[in-house]
Design goal:
The complex is a heterodimer of chains A (467) and B (457).
Chain A (H helix, E strand, L loop, with lengths): L1 E8 L3 H12 L4 E5 L5 H6 L1 H18 L15 H25 L3 E4 L1 E6 L2 E5 L5 E12 L3 E3 L14 E2 L1 H4 L8 E5 L3 H12 L3 E5 L11 H13 L3 E3 L3 E7 L4 E7 L2 E7 L1 E4 L3 E3 L6 H4 L22 E3 L10 H15 L14 E3 L4 E6 L2 H6 L4 E7 L4 H6 L5 E7 L5 E8 L2 H13 L4 H6 L9 H10 L7
Parallel strand pairs in A: 1-2, 1-6, 2-3, 6-17, 8-15, 9-10, 9-15, 10-11
Antiparallel strand pairs in A: 4-5, 5-6, 7-16, 12-13, 13-14, 18-19, 19-22, 20-21, 21-22
Helix pairs in contact in A: 1-9, 3-4, 3-6
Chain B lengths: L2 E4 L9 E7 L6 E2 L4 E6 L4 E5 L4 E6 L6 E3 L3 E6 L6 H5 L20 H5 L8 H4 L49 H10 L17 H9 L22 E5 L2 H14 L4 E9 L1 H12 L8 H15 L5 E3 L3 E5 L4 E3 L1 E3 L2 E3 L2 E2 L7 H16 L13 E5 L18 E15 L2 E15 L5 H16 L7
Parallel strand pairs in B: 13-17, 17-18
Antiparallel strand pairs in B: 1-8, 2-4, 2-7, 3-6, 4-5, 6-8, 9-12, 10-19, 11-12, 13-16, 14-15, 18-19
Classes of the chains: A alpha/beta (467), B alpha+beta (457).
Chain lengths: 467, 457
């Protein structure tokens, strides 16, 4: 039994960042984590997936090498090697978090936690031992989320041929054929990886567009690029008649007025994640949930029970590491008695690392229409950008939606190489309420991809120079 | 460079002030921040301080005279500076904000920005004096007209952000906020920023516009928590049913449709507790009122639906409990505030209540000590009043009126017994609090008062 100021339940991006900030503010801090530090992001999400996508990108580049006068001969692809490298990167990052814990004198309690009161936690370790710990100031629930199947259409996860991203990340080799159900960020990224490694990929989405939360122009651009790479994209699709055999899965898919039978070695279900709210004693403590099953919190990350806080995936969408991280900072500062700037949920960037990459912040054009906002659009294609031509990556564009009257950035959407890096200029601009004029006033070095951002700002003012 | 001394708004509701006593003579050297005079406001006697260095060349208000906020009270300048032109305008209040005097620029925003008590929300700006504070006179060309053309400026037009709003260069603000301010004719100096380091952002302009605030920057304000911080409350737009309730009941009974809930509470256990505490020593002595204040604060923390402000277009529910405590003084009623009363120990409440009441009677309360309450309590028990109704202190939604505590014969389990009882009446603004909501609050209050051990939990 030990006593701390704050105990975080879960060491993912929300919990570990919150813990570091809490420790920096002088609080005696512990984190309960049963797996490795870093959570889904470091172990089963962002980091290992990006390592695989880098391999996919390299594969595509090497194939085009001859055009650049750099012919590498026959390209041999080995998913197993890419996977092992991805695990090594993941492991390295997890060790990095361990180092940060030591540096900040944060206690890692290894095991599974359960609330036994609003300021006490019992932790069961792997060997079955149970120990109680006190949190004098607060307990923060940062238990995250987990993959889920689609049992309602017969796609229960079986870890063999109906799998989630968890298993996809540790496959030894590429399947010959794979059906990916759900074309959000995770679905599109794995479609990209498996296509690059030679699998026949079918990507199925129930909504009218892939990447349904992104601006429709971006979705269409990626869909076009995917189709060029022979990925079979079915949108507005309905799946029925799922049959899971020993070494294959078959199903009927209705899309675009056609119905077809599809059979594949493996089905990857990428249709969202479920918050980890069970078995941590929420009900016993009277913690209220939202109708969608997340923990209900206010802007100070407080749950309905005083002294209990929740952050990250378990506290509601968007389920993004950087959203959880910021909530972690806010909760630590609230608990330390500071008055942090509250989280502006309208300014969270989104990033998808398929090729071409997609990144965005703010409203989509459709959302502007729905809200009846008077807006203007500026758009600049990378095909007109010098730097993009030099690297032969001319797919995509920068699209900026600005308020008609004041020029404020309502939304910004980028498709193309390095989009996930380029977006941050516009995130800074939007967060600080710069208008498109301030973006243009900033001098953009030539030749860079960032020039496309300035040009899109100018285009929204009707003053584009290079197109 | 001369500095004008104005009668300043030394409290949020002050419209005029009586100059009680000059602390400096004409010809005395003064430093910025040094007290120049004592001024009696509507609530207290405060010090008027110098806003610049130099010599107090002229005193323009006589001791004992009353002057409206904004009137020129004196001039600070160098020994040989010609100040005739400055004095010529004396007697008339300085131009109101909204028509900013173009030749004046406040050069020391930094100093006042952190310590400004300019109200941002509707309720606080009511009754706000509208005159500019002291301004440093600087040689600055008149600000260019805000709008180069009649049509709303397209973002394509060349813009000099600093010129977008009058003298905005010294105010931290976002480009979007400047454009909105220009269009709405708001002086950025009159707006309190809520961004990093007080940066003015879109929501601040919207809040200021909603409050009709072309209100000037108040000077000499304490760095008080008088402005509720973000996160200390949440606003809920009015639902249709709330709008209808507000409209119909307002027509029926007056601007604040009030109803009253009276209940009698058993104080026997409170009395026992007090007795036991007093026996432990004088330092543990608390009054019945202290216990009732603490109980009210805790009940409020559990009923944010009662701990609320009516703001006309929305209801503001407070997460923190700042308890107003009506105090009778020789000059009349004043309501000092016990901040975060729900989180304070009984001993702190007891000390605060004593100290605030004492200072209220001495008229020594600082503005932050009598503003910002989220709910109030009035107690006339010491005058032997059995029960009464208190008038709501807007924009608060309710007030408790506490009567005298006395021994009464009551029936417990069919037997007549003598118990200590008190009658408490809650006045509720029906636009915010419905009957059942008020009743539930009183239920919680009863549980706390009749089981005072829960107050220590």
């Amino acid at each position: 039994m030990a006593s701390f100021d704050v105990i975080f339940l879960g060491g993912g991006p929300a919990g570990y960042v919150g813990a570091i900030r809490a420790a920096q503010l002088g609080l005696n801090t512990a984190v309960v984590e049963r797996e490795g530090l870093g959570g889904t992001c470091v172990l089963w999400g962002c980091i290992p997936a990006k390592a695989l996508l880098e391999a996919a990108s390299l594969a595509e580049k090497v194939k085009k090498g001859a055009d650049f006068g750099v012919a590498a001969g026959e390209v041999k692809l080995d998913y197993g090697v890419a996977m092992k490298r991805s695990r090594a990167v993941s492991n390295q990052n997890s060790k990095g978090v361990e180092f940060l814990f030591k540096k900040n004198k944060i206690t890692w309690i290894k095991g599974t936690a359960k609330l036994t009161g609003k300021n006490s936690v019992s932790v069961k370790s792997a060997d079955g031992k149970e120990e109680k710990h006190d949190a004098k100031k607060a307990v923060v629930i940062s238990t995250g989320s987990r993959v889920k199947g689609l049992p309602q259409i017969g796609l229960d996860l079986n870890k063999k041929n109906v799998i989630s991203s968890d298993e996809a990340l540790i496959l030894e080799k590429t399947p010959k054929s794979i059906v990916i159900v759900g074309a959000g960020a995770v679905g599109c990224e794995f479609a990209d990886v498996f296509a690059a490694f030679g699998a026949q990929v079918t990507l199925i989405e129930v909504m009218p567009n892939i990447l349904p939360v992104e601006d429709a122009d971006c979705s269409k651009e990626v869909e076009r690029a995917f189709k060029k790479r022979k990925i079979d994209v079915l949108t507005g699709a309905k799946i029925s008649n799922v049959k899971v055999a020993k070494d294959s899965v078959s199903m009927s898919v209705e899309a675009g007025g056609e119905k077809k039978e599809i059979k594949a070695d493996i089905v990857l279900v990428a249709a969202g994640r479920a918050p980890n709210i069970e078995e941590i004693g929420l009900k016993e403590q009277g913690v209220q949930l939202t109708d969608r099953g997340f923990i209900k919190i206010n802007e100070r990350m407080e749950t309905s029970v005083k002294g209990l806080y929740a952050i990250g995936d378990v506290a509601g969408p968007p389920m993004l590491a950087h959203k959880g991280e910021r909530e972690g900072v806010v909760v630590a500062e609230v608990i330390a008695g500071q008055h942090p700037h509250l989280f502006d949920y309208t300014n969270i960037p989104g990033a998808t690392y398929c090729h071409p990459e997609v990144a965005s912040v703010g409203l989509t054009e459709q959302q502007c229409k729905d809200k009846k906002i008077d807006y203007k659009v500026g758009k600049f294609p990378f095909s007109a950008n010098g730097r993009a031509r030099t690297s032969g990556e001319t797919e995509g564009f920068v699209k900026i939606i600005r308020g008609a009257k004041y020029g404020e950035i309502l939304g910004a959407h980028i498709v193309g190489a390095h989009a996930t890096e380029l977006i941050h200029e516009l995130v800074v601009a939007r967060t600080n309420e710069y208008t498109v004029e301030e973006v243009d006033l900033a001098i953009h070095a030539h030749p860079t991809l960032s020039e496309a951002v300035a040009e899109a700002s100018l285009d929204s003012l009707g003053k584009m120079i290079h197109a | 460079m001369a500095t004008k001394v104005f009668m300043e708004a030394l409290s949020p509701t002050m419209e005029e002030g009586r100059l009680v006593k000059w602390l400096k003579n004409e010809g005395d050297a003064v430093k910025s921040g040094e007290p120049l005079a004592e001024v009696e406001t509507d609530k207290a006697i405060m010090e008027l301080v110098a806003r610049g260095d130099g010599i107090l060349r002229k005193r323009l208000i006589n001791e004992g005279d009353t002057a409206p906020v904004g009137q020129l009270a004196g001039v600070i300048a160098t020994a040989d500076e010609n100040i005739d032109a400055l004095i010529a305008g004396a007697g008339a209040p300085a131009p109101a904000a909204g028509a900013p005097a173009p030749e004046k620029v406040v050069a020391n925003q930094q100093e006042t920005a952190g310590a400004s008590s300019v109200p941002r929300s509707a309720e606080e700006s009511q009754g706000e004096a509208s005159a500019p504070p002291q301004q440093k006179v600087a040689d600055v060309p008149p600000a260019a007209p805000a709008q180069p053309s009649a049509a709303p400026r397209a973002p394509g037009a060349p813009s000099a952000p600093a010129g977008a709003a009058p003298a905005a260069g010294d105010v931290r603000s976002s480009p979007l906020a400047r454009r909105l301010a220009t269009e709405r004719g708001l002086d950025l100096h009159s707006v309190q920023g809520s961004g990093p380091n007080g940066r003015i952002i879109k929501r601040d302009i919207e809040a200021a516009a909603a409050a009709g605030a072309a209100a000037p920057r108040a000077a000499a304000a304490p760095s008080a928590p008088a402005i509720p911080r973000e996160g200390d409350f949440h606003d809920e737009p009015l639902t249709q049913i709330r709008k209808t309730i507000a409209k119909r009941l307002g027509e029926s009974i007056g601007p604040i449709p009030t109803f009253y809930l009276t209940a009698e509470f058993d104080l026997t256990r409170v009395m026992e507790m007090r007795k036991a505490m007093t026996e432990l020593g004088d330092q543990f002595k608390v009054s019945v009122n202290d216990v009732l204040l603490k109980a009210t604060a805790i009940a409020l923390s559990q009923h944010p639906e009662v701990n609320a402000h009516w703001l006309g277009d929305k209801i503001r529910y407070h997460n923190r409990v700042h308890l107003g405590m009506a105090v009778a003084t020789d000059d009349g009623l004043i309501v000092p505030v016990i901040w975060d009363a729900d989180r304070k120990r009984m001993s702190d409440i007891s000390r605060d209540a004593k100290e605030l009441a004492k200072r209220a009677r001495e008229r020594k309360l600082k503005p932050e000590e009598f503003t910002g309450s989220t709910f109030s309590v009035s107690n006339l028990g010491m005058f032997g009043i059995d029960q009464f109704t208190a008038i709501i202190n807007p924009p608060e939604a309710g007030i408790l009126a506490i009567g005298t505590s006395e021994e009464k014969l009551v029936v417990v389990d069919g037997e007549p017994v003598v118990r200590s009882r008190v009658r408490i009446t809650m006045s509720c603004d029906h636009r915010v609090i419905d009957g059942a909501v008020g009743a539930k609050f009183l239920q919680t209050l009863r549980r706390l008062i009749e089981n005072p051990l829960m107050l220590v939990y």
